[in-house]
Task: inverse folding
């Protein structure tokens, strides 16, 4: 894979990861499991940050994923869940 193709692949991956993360953030009030999906999106975005060379972004997204998992554990399950 050439350098340009590799860069484009990372960019496409990043767009997909960030879009997924933001979509899960938008719907996380609907069901508790969307909080876990948001945490997964944060991990995917973190990987993008490290792959693209933006390690501060990768580190911050990794922290966000931990915080999202903590929110999941602390949010009580409702009768519908």
Result:
């Amino acid at each position: 894979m050439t350098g340009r193709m590799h860069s484009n692949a990372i960019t496409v991956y990043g767009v997909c990861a960030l879009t997924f993360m933001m979509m899960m953030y938008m719907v996380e009030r609907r069901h508790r499991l969307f909080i876990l999906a948001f945490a997964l999106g944060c991990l995917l975005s973190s990987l993008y940050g490290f792959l693209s060379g933006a390690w501060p972004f990768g580190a911050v997204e990794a922290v966000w994923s931990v915080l999202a998992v903590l929110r999941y554990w602390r949010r009580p399950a409702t009768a519908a869940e």
